[in-house]
Amino acid sequence: MLTEDLMLLFINQQNGKLLADSSSVENALAGAVLIELVDSGRVAFEPNGKKLQVVDPTPLKNALLQESVARFDKPMKPQRAVERIRKKLRDNVIAELEGRGVLRTEPRKVFGIFPAKRYVITNETVSGEVRKAVGEVAAGYRGADARTGALITLLFAVKAVHKAFDGDKRELNKRAKDIAAGNWAGDAVRRAVEAIQAGVTAATAAAAAAASGG
User: Fold this and answer.
1) Distance of CA 78 to the CA centre of its chain
2) Tens digit of pLDDT for each residue in 172-185?
3) How many CA atoms lie within 13 A of 86 on its CB side?
4) In the chain, how many H helices and how many E strands?
5) What angle do CA 21, 27, 4 make, to 5 degrees?
6) How far apart are the C-alpha atoms of 92 and 187, rounded to whole Å?
7) Residue 186 DSSP symbol
8) Sign of the torsion angle spanned by Cα atoms 136, 137, 143, 145
């Protein structure tokens, strides 16, 4: 799933820590869920393109996606959808990866006092394939497809491309911006991704403002 690939990109393989703050990770993951739901045909934008709504209530096999659909009690703007879906999302995605044997969670302490978690990659093949595929696109070695394009767009929305991949920050962000505006998806999906990207960016900015006290 897109969410699992994105989560792996957010993990520092050397120390098991997250490469971005929790709010950024959760918002980007929520954006990935929305893209999956739009791509599956379960959720779509209203004719005016402003709000997302459930258009196909058929149950999904994936529990995480089904739970996310259930949070659409009414049509909502992308930012609101991101804020609704992100709750407990990181833990749920981690649980899926643990269930697949891709990583394990270990306790750690911040400053030797505050409890936190370390994510240890246990299947380096799976993680390496994701990082290689997306990294080659981020570095400009090949063009984006629907999957790599979506992942880079979500990383770019939370200003994490240069954190996930080595290279010149300015060049990485420039390419990511071009990819985010690229033609790697069909028109309908492209419009949805643009709106979701804007929603992720807005939700992240709002979370940062709240954390700083206004």
Assistant:
1) 14
2) 999 999 998 887 87
3) 22
4) 10, 4
5) 90
6) 31
7) -
8) positive
